[in-house]
Structures are given as C-alpha cells and as structure tokens.
C-alpha cells in the first residue's frame, strides 16, 4: 500500500489495482495537465493538475464504497474507473475539447481505447478487470457509473473543493465528508439519505457560484479562446505534422512548446506567455443575441468572424467570436430521500429552478480583439451579428469604464 | 494600540475609542455569552462568544471604512457601534429574545440606555462621541447604519464565517475579504461595485444553507424552546427575585446556575445539562398548518399547549409548541452596480426569489415532548391544532424511522 | 452509531460503548469546562471545552487502534478510556489542580471512583468492561495506557491541533494524521515506525512553542493565579459550604457564580470578570532565584507572600507569588525505529536536549500585584526572596517599558 | 491598482511599480517555473510556481514596510526587489542551480543584467528606480536587503507557509502575520521586537522540519539528481545547441520538451515523466564518509561515479553520486530584542545549536541507480568511496526492508 499526502484530503491510501495503475504512463501523464487550463491566468495559484484530482476522486470513491458496503471486484472496478476517469484529457483539460472532438470524434470520457491498450490494459487484466467495463463506468453507465460520473459523483465533490483550495475562492466548500457518508442505493439508484436536502443543494449552489467566478471568468474564456485558435492554426500549419489524435495525446508542455516553435502560432503563443490578452469588444446577454447565432456551428462561427473582420477592416486573426452553448435545461435529477420517498431534487428544492435561471442571466456572447481595435471591432460585430441593442459591454467600453475588466480578478 | 489574535481574522488591531471600550464591563461581559446559544448541543465545537464576534465585526468595519475613505470622528463613531453592537444581548444570545422583549419591551439592538450609562458612556464622551448617535448606528439608522446593521452589514459577514469555523459546517464560507473591498457609496446608499453579483448572492446563499443546517437545526430549536420555557418558569417562580430586566443583564453562567438552583426549573435544567432533550412529536410543513396558528400570540400558544396536554392527559410541562413566524417576504434590497446602474439584488438575481421559496419549504411547526410521550402528544396536537394531515414527522415517528433525528448531527 | 461534526476532525463517528457513554452526566458535564481555563483572557477565541477534546481523543484512538489491528474488547476498553480520560477535571481544567489535589489527594487522571459510580459505571459494566481496567488506562498503565497517556498519546495529538485551531496560534499544527498512522508495537512498546524522526520531533517542538506562547503566557498565568487565590478564599470562607470534593465536582458556571456570590471572593471575581488583572511586579529567570524558593511548598509560599506584603505595607491579598516547578528533566522516551533498531528520541535527536534547555530559559518566577502597587511590591519581593539581581522585569517596569505586557497578545 | 486572489494570502493588492512590473515577460515567465522543482514527484499537490510566490513576497514586504513606516521611493525600491527577487531562476528553480552556476558563473540572485535589460529595466527607470539598486537589494545588500534576503526575510516567511499549503505538510505554518508586524530597526539592523523569541525560533524550526520532510526528501533528491544529469547531457549533446545561458533562460516547459526531444537525454526524460526513478544504493551518514569526498568538486564526483560504474561493471549512466555540501556552521544571526538589548538568536536560544546538530544527523550521501542494479552498485560504491561501514541503507536494502522508501511519502 502506498500513502500519498494530498493538500486537500491529507493522506490518501492507494491499494490494489489503483496502486498498480499509479505507475502507468497514462496516469503519470496527468501530472502535466493543469486541472483548470488557462484559469491560472486569472487565479495564479490554480496550478493543480489532473493527477492530484484523480487521486482525490479515487479517495472519495473508496470512502463512498466503504459506506455503501461494496467490496471485492465490484469495488476494484469502481476504484480503477475513479482513478482513470480523466486519462482521456488532452492538454489544458477541457479547453480544447471542442476542437479535439471535431477532429477525433471523441470526448475525454470516451476511454475505451486508452484503457485497453498498453500498461493500463495490462494492469486491469492482471487484476481480472475488463477494460471495457471500467470504461463504461467512466462514461457514467450502469449502477456504479452514477458514482463516477453523474449528478452526485465524487468527481464533482473533489473538484469543487480542490478548485476552491487552489484558486482561493471560497464558494466551492461543500461538505464532501457528509455527502459521501450519506449516499445510499434505493432500487438501483444512488440517492442521498433522509435529511440531506441542504447538502444536495449546496453541491448545486457551489457549482453555480464557482462557474461565473472561476470556470467562466471572462479572462479565462478569452485566454481559452485564444489558445483554441492557436491550436487550430497549429493543426492547419503545413510546417507542423500534428493532427487531432496527436494533439489529444500531448500534455501541456508539448503544446506550449509546439505553439512557441511554430511560426503560424507564435503571436498567440507570445500573447499567452506574456498575458498580453485580447479584450472584450462585445459582451452580450442572451436576450440580445439572435437565436440563429447561438445554434451556429463551427464553420458558421468562423464565417461570422471573417465577416466582422472584413467589416472592421482588420486581419481576421484579430477577431474571436465566442458563443457558449444554450444553457442546458436538464432537470436536476439528484435524488434525495424525503420522509421515506425518493424525490428528485428539482421537485423538492426551489433553488434548482433558480440556478437554471441564473445560468441564463450569466450567459454571455463574447467578441474578443486586441485592445486597440476593440471599439472598431465591437461596432462591426454588433452590426454583423444583428445584436438587438448596443450590448452592455460595448457601451461600457465606449464610456471608458472597462477598468475593472483589466484586473486579474473581476 | 492592542493587537488581539483571533481564530478567524488572525491579528486584529484595536485602537482609539475601541481600545478604551474593550476594558468596559459591558463588553467584557460578552465573553460569557455564547454566540449561538444552545447550538453547541448539536455542534459541540460551537462555543464561541459574542465577545470575539464583536471584535470581528469591528475589524471588518475598519477595513470597510478604510476602503471607503472614511476617517476621523465619523469613522470612530462606526468603530464604536461595530464593537458595541451586541452589548444588548441577554444570556444565550437570541435564544430568549422573544421572552425578554415581552418583559422589557426592548430587542437586543436597542442600546440607547446601555451606551449612555456607566463606563461605556464615559468612554464615548471622552472620545467626543454622542452615545445616542452610536446607538442609532447599532439600530441600523443613517448612512453608516447600513454597514453595522443592514443587508450588507459586516455583522453578517463575520458571523457566517465564524459560525462555519466553529461548527465545522462549511456553508458559511463567503468571500468577506472581497465583499468588504467592493463596498462603495452611491447617493448615500451602500452598494456593491460592478462585477459582484455572485459575491452578493453568496452572502444570501450562505445564510440560506446555514439556517436549516445550524441556526434552525431541530435539536437547536428543541433545546432553545426548553431553555425559554425554563426561563419563563424562573421569572414566574415566587422563590426567585429575577424579573425581565435582571434576566436581560445576566450572562450564561448566571442563568445556568439560577436554573439549577430554582426548584421550579430544576427538571428542565437537568435535562439541558445532561442533553436529555425532548423529541419532536409533530414536525409540520407550513401548508399543513391552519393560518390562525401561525399568527397566534404568546398567550394563545400557551393555551394551545395546555389544551394539547389536557387532551393527551399529561402534565402541561411536557408539551412545548414551537411556531416560527411566517417567513418574511422582504425583498432583498442589497444593491449592486450592474453596467453602471444601481440595481436591487432581488431584481437582478433569480436566486433571491428561490431563497424565499426555500424559506417556505424549510419552515416547520414543532411540538416537542419527552420521548416516551411522543406518540400520544403527537396525536393530540394534530387534533387540537387542526393540522391538515397527519404531518410528515408524526408518520415517521409512527414508522419508527426517527433514528437519524436522535443523532447530534441530522 | 452517532456522527458528530467537529471543527477539527470533521465527522467523528461514535459507536459501541462510546455511544452509550456520551449520554452520561459525567461526560456531558465536560461541555461546561473550558479546555484552557483562563487562556481565553489572552486568546478570546479559545473557548473550546473538554467535551469536544474528549471526542477528538476518542477519534484518534479509534484510528490508531484500527491501524494497529486491535479490535474487540481490548479496543472497546481503550475507546472508553480515551473518551473518559478527562472526566476527573474540576472547573477551569488544570487551573485549580494543585489546589484540589491538596484538598482531595487526587489528580484529574485518578478516575477510579468516577468510573465505578453512577451512569458511567453502569454503561461500562453493560459492555463487559471493568471500570478499574479503564481507569488504569487513563492513568497510563499497561500496554495501551501509553496510547491514552504517554509520550505519544492521542491526548496530546488532539490538544495541540485543537488549541492551535482555537487560539489562532499556528505552532501546534503537527501531522496527527501521519503520527496515528505510523504507530506500531515492538515488544509491547508503542513506537513510531521507520522514517518518522521528524514527525516525532514535531510533536515535541509544537509543545515547546505552544508552551510559552499559549499555555504559560504571562497573562494566562496571572489570571490563573488570581483564580486559584479566589478559589482558596472560597473554600476558607465561613459563609460558603464548599469543600475540596465539592469544588472538584463543579463546572465553570458553578465556580464563576459562587465566586461572584461570596463576599470574600467578590473582588477577585470582579477583576476576573472585567479583565482588570494584576500585573507582574517581578518576573525572574531561574538563575536569579535561590534554590530554596523553587522547592518551597504551599505553606512557605503563603508565608513569603505575607512577608512581602508586610514589607511593602500592603494588604496581603495584593501579593501573589507564582513559582512554577523546576523544569522536569525527564528524558524524552518517545521511541522511534531507526534502521531497524528501537531508539529513544532523546538519543537520536539533538532537539530533545535543546528543548529541555529552552524550558530552563523560559522558566519565570512571578510576583503579581495590582498595577498601582507594582513598584513597591516588586522591590519588597526582590528583597524578601533574595533574588540575585534586580530581575529583568523589575528593571523593565522601572524603565516604563512594560507596554507590550499589557497587551492581550504579548 | 490590481487585486489578485492568492490561495495563501487571500487578496493581494498590487500598485505602483509592482503593477507595471507584473506585465513584463520576465515576471510572467515565472508562471512556468515550479517553486519546488521535482518535489511534486513526492507531493503531487506541490505544483505552485515562482510567480505566486513572488506575489506573496511582495505582499509581505508591503506589510512589513507599512509597519516600519517606510514609504516613497525607498519603499518602491523594496517593492520592486521583492517582486523581482526570483526572476533569475532557471527551469525547476534551485534544482539545476549548481549546473547553471558552473556554466554561467551566476546564481539566481545575481540579477543585475536581468533588471537592467528589456521591459523590466524600462519600468524601473520610468518609476525613477535604478536597476542596480534594486538588484543590490535582491542580493541582500544594504539596510533593506535584509528584508528581501536575510535571516528574517519575507521570502522565507512566504515560502514556508506556501510550501506547507501546497504539499499538505503542516510543519511550515509559522505566524508570518506576527513576524511581519514585529519587525523593527535598531541601529540600521532589522530586529524582532521584545517578546518574540518563540516567533523567531518557530521560523528556524519550521525550516528544520520542512527540510528533511519536503525539500530534501530522498525521492526529491533522487529525481533532482536525475534531472541535473539529464540537463548536463543536454548541454553536452552535439545535436543540441543549448548552452548554459540558454538553459538558464528556459522555463520548465522548454526544458522538459528539450529533454524529450534529445536522443542523449530521452532515457532520463522517460524515467522522469513516468516516475520510474533510480533508487538508493547507498545512503550514508556524515560520520561514515571520508572527509575528502564531502569536499570533492564536480570533476572528482564525476570521476568517482565512473570508477564505481567500472567496479560494478555497469554503464556509467547508471550511477549517480549525490554529495550535499558540509552542513553550514553559520550562527543564526537573527536579532531579537530581549529586555531592551539586541541579542543574536543563537545566543539566546538553545534551539539554534540543536538545529545545527539536527542538520548533521540528517545529512546523507546518496548513490542512486536503477533498482535492479542497486545491490551491485551499492557494494562497489562502499568500496570505491571508502565508506567506513556498510552504511545503513545498504544493509536495509540487503534485508529487503526498503519498502517504505518506495512510497511517495516516506
């Protein structure tokens, strides 16, 4: 057994299949992938990696299984899935996921190939675990898939606490000790035991507060968009042999150095390295954006960008259009026991609706550009995209009130 | 200048009028009043006092004023109000407030008398501060009253963080450092600067989660109701000379020993000392309770209790009816700047409505009794109070499912 | 099983005999005894109690036993001893221990009587545990007594961390998670496994730094001496029926109110309540104090006090002479495994000697008096006690340099 | 003014020259240099960077200067020096310092060139600061140099707390809030005010405990030695154009990718990436090592390595000899005020001598090798180096007792 000291969970004991998986290259690679990608450009302490997060998820999975009275092969399968759940990540974690998905057809939780091959596959088979069964758990399938990837999964419990610890933002401090302890199964469904409505709500609330403050902070979104643009250019560059699969297998070091070395990406690379970032030329609320734009696919977005650039008479590289998906309307299906009945948290808690509403009010379309072209590009974008009014941010920028936006911390 | 080490804010520097107020009996008395009254019967680490909380509020007030550029007499007046804002508390803080208010006509934030008299009055006048002006600030009046007692006051910022630190419940961890830093004045109104909607929401959310988990935990409510009943008996006891005013001036030690010494209260006192508490015989949601009962005054409540006892054929001391006030519908009037306009948080944030809804769904009427009479008294109470259905808790109790309720921690 | 939320160890699960002991009056009484007595007059957040500490010690004992592979009756006996180890404390924990020992002949860890009688005895016997065997463990006897009361006991591991958490002084932050995990038995001796020399040193160092900063802070010593004096007067007072046994059974509330109510102790009581404390008139290092004085018994100390008062022509109540015992020269017998051999930490670590030396250099004899008589009483004390030089503090006081000493925090 | 959220100091306000320095490439580069180099291979959470540490040092310097009453140009000069004190670091911080020093003649605190050139030089001159004067402060020269680099410097105060926060090892938790507050100047010397002997000791103790547990953990030393060997091979490789100066200017990404790409270093690189590290073949205490070896220079060490390899009949790349410098005998010259006199802490505190002793007892010479050759190379090394006995570790290895050494955490 190995004991590892973690800054969040203190001592983590690693045993069985997990002990053997620790030494595989696929897992060690996660030491070189930052958990929050470019968020460290906003919160300089946020340099934690997918490796320590994976250990934390494994640790919470062990506690949950012990509490649920699950052991043996079933437990080992979940242990493996918990530890391996992020090995499918490319460099900068989620930052490039839309790009690599377009090129490879896979999201990070599609790990059937990674788990079957090489050292990981060998270790799993040595422990009589079927790689595909473990990969299914990572994809959230089956009874225990909910524990690894679902509304009440230990993944979220770890990342909220860990991201709060490392950014210094206190909103992610859920009571994971209690949540893990109160999980139970009812008719094959993972539910929270009686008396835990607030504990379940706190998990949703923590995410709702961390989201705009950390994960979708405007500077994080800008730098992520710049990184994605640079990675696209890298893939397109004739001087470079990287394709989508190769990009997906890189770690942060590889990508950063590749962007520095490639002529086509050196400007973006310098800007990212020196934190000389684009600024917001437009920052529009959802009600001010025509519906078609929100549903636009990648090619259409690229076409809008070229049109805006032409209209503003600037180089197309100077315009980045960043359109988040429509806020998802999925019900919160977290299940809690209330007076002996299983209820969906969405039925029980008025907070759930409100948080969906908050998602709407926090949604923003962004157009980013070098600071000195902001005015010009902002006007062109409002025009080309048919934004209903001269959106909030454009006005702010005009009034010269954009000072707080240049701070690291909003 | 005095430097005091605090477990929450680390070093607190106390200077000027605050330094001189520290040594007054009125302030030192707060060392002997627990911040959360009987909550320590649920969370054993919650033994912090009004004294350290008062220091914390003073500390945050200093930071806020510095950030607002306020100094001189104006600042000293607020410093004094922040440090003194809780000197009007009786023993066990809020636990007996309804009782002492009935007897004295004063709530804890009515401190005009306390601030004018004795050592406190002397110190204030030595520093050229008018005691009444300071008392007005404590009551939340005037431009700076909002900072001491209002929607965005430093009182709440301190107690949420401090109560979380001492109970171990992580929901109160707001970003007080940021909130204090982002306060500003617009047209005499205290507002949060641009970009702080989430920070303001987090303050409301923290309270909404701490409320059912800590402040209104069922065991805290039961023990508070028992303490209140005992204190009433103490005031009524002919062997005891305590009146409402005297009760109000006691500290926790005085009251605990008085309850132990007085024949009429010794049973309640023993039960509280040994944590041998009443249990819930009824625990009913707001929709199951006839309107008249929610608005009942103290005498009507007492009359219901006697009726329930008679119907169940038990001693009236064995029945406690605990009816919280109707959830208040006050809008959240916290003001935030959004794109240059002052907006009320209630307009801007869908969370505010939801939290109001949550208050409704968390509201409970309780009837408490010795464990062995719970069934009988529960049935009688449903009958006497005309509860719409056989409310949730009664059913639970019948099914013998009440086990988690006997735990310290739900 | 009961789960209790603790501010230090998060969730503590209480089971078996411990669950039943929780509800005994002897244990619940500890809620009303502050862990650090008058230290809260220096560190206002230090209001934690012997109750939560007892839970913490129980929790660490459970972890240690699990790691050692001990279960069954043997484990239950240790669980009971851990939870009960402090039930012998009188009010204000150690503060009055010398006084109650003189009167009752018992120290706080002599709990044979308490454990045999009443509810505790019943619970133990119901769980087939012999009260005397548990009491022996509390006294540190036998193989597992070392775990409850010894050089490496879980008592110390809990209080260092807990006292640091509540005072805000960061020196007690040992790695208790590691220490508990690394305990092992070699030939009936509890030892720390290979590679833990620093972990063992850290325990000694933490105590060596917490000692002068917290436990023996001059203001804590002064207030403790005043409290002890007041308690002695209470026992001597004809108007009061308290004897040593009764004092020992009081909790903090009882004693505080008794001191307030008794004419003979009301002055000390008012001073303690209002933090209007005596000051140091003499503060002398060990080398400046004649040997006989250090060994003086209680009667001789009282006689010196009277002599000093007579010489200074003041009321004898105005002089308190506070002489700590000679620093104990016990070797650190903590055992650690180094390259396969059991070694005493004192042989292995040069720190141990140094910490002994530090004890010497921190030792101080104190004479305390009302501030306005400090000069006069200081000179008389130097004379009467035959202090070698005009000790450091006396000089300081003369030079008017005593400002920092009046602060809460040195 | 910019406000930055830090996981250790919460909000850091950056103003004046520091605000402008933030945006320079030299400072932004520190985001890509891990504070503790290969220590993250032992403590996976230790991924913090020189950038956030530099902000922390700047923050503490601001607090110290404010407390000392220093402002204006003098303060700005120290602010700049605090923020810039680490810009001279190469990749992996101290890990390669001996190598780059041999090649460039400069240590990391020799920053005269870096501060004069480019954007940093421009910013300094715009703020009327002489780059050389700032560089002198970084080198610890002059009255305020002590604050930036000395026995009581804010550099150490930050790194102890920060490294503890990120490794999870609790030994570095000094009371930096107090230390910074208690600094004062006496005759041009920075001293700690009266009553701070324990605060000063705690700083030394924290370092003494963090040293073997974190900074010189055997696995950190092994991986550092492997990295240094790889970097040497990189510099020697004809296929690579990197020289010492270029190496010094790299960041972690550059070096990691260069080692992966270069044929001569790919084996070491793979081992480091996959944490497939060498093990200890010898681990000898200072008394078992002939004096000449401890003083050996780089060439002699290399020659010993070749001789050991020849004697064991293995490839020279399989032997790494790691000989730390002789423990330095420098007195602790931290100055503290005791009873009005300035005293050196070394005179006042017996701990200082003891910590020097501890350094001796913790010193180890290491010989590292691939696990499967450990036995053979261990015997050869004992022979070639003339180690007095068959040192502890060799014996352990033979007995197959080396299990704990393979853990991440000792």
TrEMBL record, chains A, B, C, D:
Q: Which PROSITE patterns match?
A: HD
Every copy of the HD domain together lies at 50-160
Q: Please name the SMART domains in this protein's record.
A: HDc
One matching Pfam family is HD
One Gene Ontology biological process: dGTP catabolic process
**Family matches, as SUPFAM superfamilies:** HD-domain/PDEase-like
| Keyword Translocase carried by entry | no
Which InterPro entries does this chain map to?
dGTPase-like (IPR050135), HD/PDEase_dom (IPR003607), HD_assoc_2 (IPR045509), HD_domain (IPR006674)
Protein name, UniProt field: Phosphohydrolase
Annotated source species:
Natronorubrum daqingense
User: Organism classification, top ranks?
Assistant: Archaea, Methanobacteriati, Methanobacteriota, Stenosarchaea group, Halobacteria
């Amino acid at each position: 057994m190995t004991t590892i000291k973690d800054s969040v969970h203190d001592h983590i004991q690693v045993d069985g299949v997990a002990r053997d998986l620790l030494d595989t290259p696929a897992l060690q690679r996660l030491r070189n992938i930052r958990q929050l990608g470019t968020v460290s450009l906003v919160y300089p302490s946020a340099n934690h990696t997918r490796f320590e997060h994976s250990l934390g998820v494994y640790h919470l999975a062990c506690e949950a299984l012990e509490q649920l009275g699950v052991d043996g092969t079933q437990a080992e399968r979940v242990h493996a899935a918990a530890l391996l759940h992020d090995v499918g990540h490319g460099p900068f974690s989620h930052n490039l996921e839309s790009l690599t998905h377009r090129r490879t057809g896979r999201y990070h939780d599609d790990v059937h190939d990674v788990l079957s091959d090489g050292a990981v596959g060998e270790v799993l088979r040595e422990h009589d675990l079927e790689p595909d069964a473990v990969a299914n758990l990572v994809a959230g399938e089956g009874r225990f898939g909910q524990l690894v990837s679902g509304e009440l999964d230990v993944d979220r419990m770890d990342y909220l606490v860990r991201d709060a610890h490392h950014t210094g933002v206190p909103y992610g401090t859920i009571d994971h000790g209690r949540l893990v302890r109160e999980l139970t199964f009812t008719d094959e469904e993972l539910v929270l035991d009686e008396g835990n409505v607030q504990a379940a709500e706190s998990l949703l609330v923590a995410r709702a507060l961390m989201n705009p403050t950390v994960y979708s902070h405007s500077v994080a979104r800008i730098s992520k968009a710049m990184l994605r643009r640079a990675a696209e250019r890298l893939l397109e560059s004739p001087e470079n042999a990287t394709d989508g699969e190769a990009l997906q297998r890189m770690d942060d070091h590889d990508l950063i150095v590749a962007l520095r070395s490639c002529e086509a990406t050196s400007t973006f690379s310098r800007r990212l390295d020196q934190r000389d970032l684009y600024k917001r030329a437009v920052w529009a609320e959802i009600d001010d954006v025509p519906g078609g734009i929100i549903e636009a696919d990648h090619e259409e977005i690229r076409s809008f960008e070229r049109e805006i650039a032409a209209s503003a008479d600037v180089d197309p590289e100077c315009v980045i259009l960043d359109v988040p998906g429509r806020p998802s309307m999925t019900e919160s299906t977290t299940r809690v026991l209330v007076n002996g009945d299983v209820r969906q948290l969405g039925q029980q808690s008025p907070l759930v609706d409100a948080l969906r509403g908050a998602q709407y009010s926090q949604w923003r379309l962004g157009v980013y550009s070098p600071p000195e072209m902001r005015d010009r590009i902002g006007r062109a974008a409002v025009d080309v995209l048919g934004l209903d009014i001269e959106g909030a941010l454009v006005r702010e920028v005009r009034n010269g009130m954009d000072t707080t936006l240049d701070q690291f911390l909003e």
